[in-house]
Amino acid sequence: MMDLLHWIDGAFVPATNGGWLPVTEPATGQTFARCAAGTASDIDRAVQAARSAFPTWSQTTTAERVSILERFAALIDDHCDELATLESQDGGKPIARARSVEIPRVAENFRFFASALRHEHNDAFTSGPNVLHWTHRRPRGVAGCISPWNLPLYLLSWKVAPALAAGCTVVAKPSEVTPATATRFAELSGEAGFPPGVLNIVHGLGSEAGSALVRHPDVPTISFTGGTTTGRDIAVSCAKQFKRTSLELGGKNPFVVFADADVDRAASEAARAAFSNSGQICLCGSRILVESSVLPEFQEKLLAATAAMRVGDPAEETTHIGSLVSESHYLKVKQAIEAAPGTVLCGGGRPNGLPDRCREGWFLEPTILTNLPESCALEDEEVFGPVASVRAFSDESEALRLANATPYGLAASVWTKDLDRAHRLVQRVEAGVIWINAWMVRDLRTPFGGAKQSGLGREGGIESVHFFQEPAGVTLRLGDPS
Ligand code: NAD
Predict the structure, then answer these.
(1) Which residue's alpha carbon is at the smallest distance from atom 35 of ligand 1?
(2) Options 25, 87, 102, 248, the catalytic residue
(3) What would the mean pLDDT of 362-373 be, rounded to a whole number?
(4) What is the pLDDT of residue 233?
(5) Fewest C-beta atoms under 10 Å: which of 7, 284, 321, 449?
């Protein structure tokens, strides 16, 4: 049994009150580790360590910071296999996905923000012969970073990397559901040369450790990724202390296919968009909208592409879809399917042919429903599992109305060869991330975030670094004013 401890002030420590939480491998249902159950006193200890480290870290030169960030990236690359194995075991995600997509992206996040720092520049201008103005950006102090279980280290690093690059020190709270890789990540940060207290990781429940971090008066900046309900509570709590807050929340994303699209490509990408990581990605396309004239052809191809996805043991190299992340999440997704007032086109049950090892695991077949009422729980609420619906539309205005018909506004994928139409939709689709003839093509320089109830603020590019800094407009008057 592995013990996952907090990382505070450059050392592993247990929870102050000696509490533990069990950590289960969802593909087998077996507990393989326990993690420290952090409370407000652990958070306070970590915040004090981060506060003490701040004056020195915030004054490091760009070259020093860049070199530690790059060293950390290289260490993550060197330990990719080990981290990917742990991530797959902890979250039930296919090992091939963890090794080829998620862990490399963790390293890339550090490399990217090191490079962003190297290229950062601020405005400076004159408003008269003797008056000079510029923007001075100072790191905002201790940053609180809270991340979810679906892409555990990938999303944690997407916050921690820009915060450290900005000159902040960090207290991070990973999800209690998938704490394993964050612990190894912490240890590697010490090897990379981050001074003690610069990066601290506190495990624990959201309602205990997470909430204590959000409320802590010495943490002026909170970057949160997780569910919309949690995000709303955090926004209320942060508002009371005027904390700067970034909220990356849930989605219920439309995948819109027009009759003039490349139907083959659209169908295979729709299957990938719906079922990657068992549908547990905030950007997954769970509402597939198809122009009626191509619906029969599209549906046939979508079902074939879905059938070709192998659900199985996440530890096997050829698995496309692993287990769901936990028993409670599995039950929630299964209940959403069973309660849906529609027709099941495929899936809905436990996949056949799982190995013995996975007998007690939380697996669901990729599931597609149709004939759902326009407004019902499965169409309006985020399910966050391997479940998608298909619905026909008759023209562009109906497609747009359906695409925008939820309280969420995270991502949209639009498939058409008509560029005029694509351009019209870009202006009207209520989403923070829009793909045309693509899904999940990401460039870290582009803004990332949601509209409506999918969040507040944008991450990505230099904006992520600026989020953790306080800009001051500085004016210098030179010479004798008389
Ligand atoms: P969650 O909101 O339950 O938990 C997220 C994190 O917040 C965890 O670390 C949790 O411990 C912590 N937390 C919970 N309650 C808290 C509180 N009161 N105060 C402070 N912290 C608290 O979300 P989850 O179930 O872990 O993740 C799934 C959700 O995350 C989905 O809704 C998904 O769409 C969303 N998500 C969004 C994005 C995005 O970029 N928009 C990316 C990935 C996941």
Answers:
(1) 226
(2) 248
(3) 97
(4) 98
(5) 449
Ligand 1 within 6 A of 207 CB? yes
Per-residue pLDDT reduced to its tens digit, 18-71? 999 999 999 999 999 999 999 999 999 999 999 999 999 999 999 999 999 999
Q: Which two tokens stand for residue 147?
A: 């991340």
Atom of ligand 1 nearest to the CA of 176: 11
d(CA 165, CA 160): 8
- CATH number of the structural domain 254-436: 3.40.309.10
80 part of the active site: no
Q: Where are the domains of the chain?
A: 2-249, 254-436
Arithmetic mean of pLDDT, 357-374:
97
CB of 148 shorter than 6 A to ligand 1: yes
Residue 409 near ligand 1, beta carbon < 6 Å: no
Round to whole Å and give the CA distance between 281 and 277: 7
pLDDT for res 482: 60
Q: What is the pTM of this model?
A: 0.97
What does the pLDDT read at residue 481?
Answer: 64
Three state DSSP letters for the chain = CEEECEEECCEEECCCCCCEEEEEECCCCEEEEEEECCCHHHHHHHHHHHHHHHHHHHCCCHHHHHHHHHHHHHHHHHCHHHHHHHHHHHHCCCHHHHHHHHHHHHHHHHHHHHHHHHHCCCCEEEEECCEEEEEEEEECCEEEEECCCCCHHHHHHHHHHHHHHCCCEEEEECCCCCCHHHHHHHHHHHHHCCCCCCEEECCCCHHHHHHHHHHCCCCCEEEEECCHHHHHHHHHHHHHCCCEEEEECCCCEEEEECCCCCHHHHHHHHHHHHHHHHHCCCCCEEEEEEEHHHHHHHHHHHHHHHHCCCECCCCCCCCCECCCCCHHHHHHHHHHHHHCCCEEEECCCCCCCCCHHHCCCCCCCCEEEECCCCCCHHHHCCCCCCEEEEEEECCHHHHHHHHCCCCEECEEEEECCCHHHHHHHHHHCCCCEEEECCCCCCCCCCCECCEECCEECCECHHHHHHHCEEEEEEEEECCCCC
Query: How many whole angstroms from 352 Cα to the centroid of ligand 1?
Result: 31
Whole-number Cα distances in Å, 378 to 287, 384, 432: 9, 10, 22
Ligand 1 neighbourhood includes 410 CB (under 6 angstroms) = yes
Q: What is the mean pLDDT of residues 135-145?
A: 97
- Give CATH superfamily name and number for 2-249: Aldehyde Dehydrogenase; Chain A, domain 1 (3.40.605.10)
